[in-house]
Amino acid sequence: MGRLGKEYKKGEIIARQGDKGSCMFVIQEGEVEAVAEAGGREFRLRTMGPNEIFGEMALFEKEIRTCTVRALGPTRILTIDKRNFLTGVHEDPSLALRIVKTMSHRIRDLTDRLAKYEEAT
Amino acid sequence: MPESQGGQDVSISAENLGFTRRQERTPPLRNTVLADGSRIAVIGAGPAGSMFSYFLLSMAETLGLDVDVDLFEPRRFCHRGPAGCNHCGGIVSELLVQRLATEGIILPHDVVQRGIESYMLHMDVGDVEIATPLHEKRIAAMYRGNGPRESEPLDTQSFDGYLLELAQEKGANVVRRLVTDVRRDNDLMTVACADQHSERYDLVVVATGVNSHLLENLEGEFESFHRPARTKTFICEFRLGHELVRETFGPSMHVFLLDIPRLEFAAMVPKGEFVTVCLLGDRIDDDLINRFFSSPEVRNRFPGGVIPQQACHCYPRINVRAARPAYGDRLVVIGDSGSTRLFKDGIGSAYRTAKAAAKTAVFHGVDAASFKQHYAPLCRKIGNDNQVGKVVFGFAGLIQKTRFARRGILRMTSNEQAQTSRPRRMSGVLWDLFSGSASYTNVFVRTLHPAYIGSLVWNLVAGNVPGSAARHGRASGEEESHVRR
To answer: Which residues have C-beta within 8 Å of that of residue B31, sequence separation ≥ 6?
Structure first.
């Protein structure tokens, strides 16, 4: 049986913090972790599984990747090209809805964590 | 002219009538906006019908709208051969794989028979592999049913069956009946089935594909409707076994540029233990099929140069000119039965038309004026692009007939494939033309770029100079690994 996307081994880096990105990713199989490096330390931001997207900020901004994403085990990832995505959104703006929802969830998650952090400090 | 807004009565000018019933003007419609309890009939559960149902129900759910969708499909996609098949080459394009993934629809590994990551172009002057820069499998080869007639039951799921499941999960009700007629019935539509069963609906969506008799009946029922113009194609399957398919065809789709009159496009698609052969062109007949299988470039794909017994074959027709009009009051035609891209990415067109029709029905209305304003522009866009596509295929036909042009293209493509730092102008054009990943207009515009033209002219000269590698069917040093004889 066939599989789509590109295979990554455990520990392999899919997107690196600081690199310039021009695509986003959809997890086909497996799990990945998003980690941010600051002050010489590494912080795990979240883990993600099948059908979740990441790297979506690169579709809208020219900024560099804000975190590193690496495979937690054998993983298969599909790349979504910026050009294809934006062409699709131009024809059908609702194509961006799922990404808006994902970003909305992540903002909510970060707000909760920030509130907990403020409370603890 | 008053139009439908918020469920008000509307009257529609002749210009906007779309499907007009014979010898009768449609009276003003009532309740042209879907509301709780509205009933929708979708005829045909191929990709267009299932995706329409899926998107319409998803959008209705978002709006908190409770509508009923009956999806009429007498076939079961778990059957092998014609009983479960939708007669198609079975390719989900790179563009559609990405769009579906963005929508949250991941094609499971038991639906994808093989992931394709490159195209192998076969010509009499040599072969060249065109790979994706990312070396990633983003094209899916799959079966529309459960495989060829003479196959063992496959331990896999059909693409159409998978999409139908998605629609059912969203709440679509599958009706195992054959629809034989659609009639306008006062303010609503009536769907009549072969078993004399009939029901009334607020909206009827025709997604039967282009080979259905229902389209003929619609022409009889509605004077303004013209079904799509069609041409015959040829599809067959060869059973070679998993190992041989993997060794011989790899993760590549094999495309043939051969000097055979009336042949526009020929491809071999590896799928599990089978290989699907698709021939598209003008009036595909036995003579053309024999010439194709007699050519050395095709015979050499098979072990010992011998063409094996076909496991299954068919002559499905494809849409080469859109239905006119593809909409009316409470009626819309989507997918192959309406508008589709010429020769390419029929499933992608099914997705685009299904979603555009669903958005129109949910957010704007189900009258002809709404479809004219929000759905017809997409059909026109596809139709206009197909006109450019005819020009592009015209150029491809010239290349098919001209050996010196084939040498130039082989040289230019193989040089690009050997050097990743160079712009891949010819490779990109061929990739998008074969895969349907870009519109024909986009492909055509790229071929007008001065750098593309300059490079092509140079390669035409260099590839045809007496003594050149390409002229003798050999690759020069840098391109050798990408050219095969």
So the answer is: B7, B187, B202
- Secondary structure of residue B48 in the 3-state scheme: helix
- A80 at B interface, C-beta within 8 A: yes
**Interchain pair B101, A92: CB under 8 A:** no
Shared domain check, B396 and B364: no
pTM (2 d.p.): 0.87
Q: Are residues B300 and B204 in the same domain?
A: no
Classify domain A6-120 at the CATH class level: mainly beta
Domain that holds residue B461: 389-484
Between CA B118 and CA A33 the distance in angstroms is: 30
- Encoding tokens for residue B400? 């098919």
Q: How far apart are CA B441 and CA B452, in angstroms?
A: 16
What's the CATH code of the domain at B55? 3.50.50.60
**Amino acid letter for position B290:** N
Same domain? For B179 and B247 the reply is no
Say yes or no: B36 and B165 in one domain. yes
User: In this complex, do B113 and A2 lie within 8 Å of one another by their Cβ atoms?
Assistant: yes
Q: Would you say residue B8 lies in a domain?
A: no
Region at B97 (left for phi over 0; alpha for psi -120 to 50; beta for the rest) = alpha
- List CB contacts of B108: < 8 A, sequence separation 6 or more: B157, B162
* B169 plus B56 within the same structural domain: yes
What's phi and psi for B205, nearest 5 deg?
Answer: -115, 120
Q: B334 phi and psi, to 5 degrees?
A: -130, 170
Q: Are residues B185 and B284 in the same domain?
A: no
Domain count for chain B: 3
Q: In chain B, which residues have their Cβ closer than 8 Å to the Cβ of A5?
A: 115, 136-138
Same domain, B268 and B407: no
In a domain, B89, yes or no: no
User: A2: nearest CA in chain B?
Assistant: B114
B272/B419 same-domain check: no
Q: Is there a domain that residue B464 lies in?
A: yes
Tens digit of each residue's pLDDT, chain B (485 residues): 333 444 444 444 444 456 666 555 555 566 788 999 999 999 999 999 999 999 999 999 999 999 999 999 998 866 666 655 656 667 888 889 999 999 999 888 888 877 888 899 999 899 999 987 667 778 877 776 656 655 555 666 788 899 999 999 999 999 999 999 999 888 899 999 999 999 999 999 999 988 888 998 888 888 788 999 988 889 998 988 889 998 888 889 999 999 998 888 899 988 888 899 999 888 889 999 999 999 999 999 998 889 998 888 888 888 888 988 999 999 999 999 999 999 888 899 999 999 999 999 999 999 999 999 999 999 999 999 999 999 998 888 888 889 989 999 999 999 998 887 778 899 989 988 888 888 999 999 999 999 999 999 999 998 887 766 655 554 444 444 444 44
Which of B61, B98, B384 would you mutate first to test chain A, the one with the most A CBs within 10 A?
B98
